[in-house]
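seq as requested:
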Amino acid sequence: MLHPRIAERYRNLLREARADLYDMHFRHLCELEDLRVELRELKEILSLLVTLRRQQAEGDLDALQRQLETALARIERDPNKPLH
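struct tokens:
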């Protein structure tokens, strides 16, 4: 059996260690939640950027299509004239 003073010191050390572990766990949980919030925000930003880029690409495609149609309309092909 342990001497009473040693046993008390041992129990105190265990209580301190347990309290430190609970504090550390709580800090980790808080940090994890902060990271989850940041991840959600980054996903929203990415989604907005993808939407904007898609809209820009669609606009560019429409502009290119109009340019092509305009260029093709300028070329009046004579059906009796060979292509080459």
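The radius of gyration is 36 Å.
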